[in-house]
Amino acid sequence: MTSASATSRATAAPDAHATAPQAAAARWPAGSRTASVRAATRKFATGVTVLTCSRGEGTHGVTVSTLTLASMKPPMVSVALRRDSQGLAALLAAGTFAVNVLGGQQDPLARHFARSDRGEGLTRPGRGVWAGHTADGVPLLGGAVGWLQCRVTRTVPAGDHELVLGLVTAARLGTAETPLLTFAGNLHRFPAASALATAPPDDTTRS
Predict the structure, then answer these.
(1) Half-sphere exposure of 78 (CA within 13 A, CB side)
(2) Diameter of the chain by CA atoms?
(3) What is the rounded (10 degree) CA torsion for 105, 183, 70, 51?
(4) What are the helix and strand counts (H, E) for the chain?
(5) Residues ≥6 apart with Cβ < 8 Å to 177
(6) Contacts by residues 107-112 (CB-CB < 8 Å, ≥ 24 positions apart)
(7) Would you call the peptide bond into 14 cis, given omega within 30 degrees of 0 as the criterion?
(8) Tens-digit pLDDT profile for the chain (207 aa)?
(9) End-to-end CA distance of the chain
(10) Measured in whole angstroms, how far is the alpha carbon of residue 114 from the centre of its chain?
């Protein structure tokens, strides 16, 4: 026989758990799937890089936030570029490129190389922003967090983009201490290294 107290607990349990899904429910963006995916992925906080390459007599650069470390042995990076973009055409024509990891103060460069009318050549956005070349002759942007010298190894179709895989042949650290970030469609400057040094340690990364 079931006691009155047990019956009370059994009937109370559904009511107690009924509110849990409501509290934890995800807020799905309204609109089409494409709009929903775009709204959700805009919440990814990522670093900002400019890919530079030499094509004939010109120099080309494009701002990207899709760069990923694909492998460490051998060191490889991947980046997704629109199939119809001039950035993809320039990279494939050159065969080699440099990854300029932008520093927190370089948001003007990120905006310049994201413009469709940015043009080519060392005079754009100005000779003063360029500093040296890779061993392959690819110009580098000064003031970056770091640079990677890469060689295109292959491309993989991915919907309306091409995934470009690049073998990292050399790497250098720059003078900037903190990176430039993009989040929710806007550029953000990462807190200064001195501010981060005073923050309490994060134990969540220990696993």
Answers:
(1) 14
(2) 91
(3) -40
(4) 6, 12
(5) 103, 145, 192, 193
(6) 107/180, 107/187, 107/189, 109/50, 109/63, 109/141, 110/48, 110/50, 110/63, 110/180, 110/182, 110/187, 111/63, 111/187, 112/63
(7) no
(8) 444 444 444 444 444 444 444 555 666 656 676 777 767 766 667 789 999 998 666 788 999 988 999 999 999 999 999 999 988 999 999 999 999 999 999 999 999 998 877 766 555 666 678 888 898 889 999 999 999 999 999 999 998 999 999 999 999 999 888 999 876 666 777 666 655 555 555 554 443
(9) 48
(10) 13
Q: Which two tokens stand for residue 70?
A: 């694909």
CA distance 107 to 189: 8
Structure tokens, 201: 């340690």
- Nearest alpha carbon to residue 95 among 130, 157, 51, 144: 51
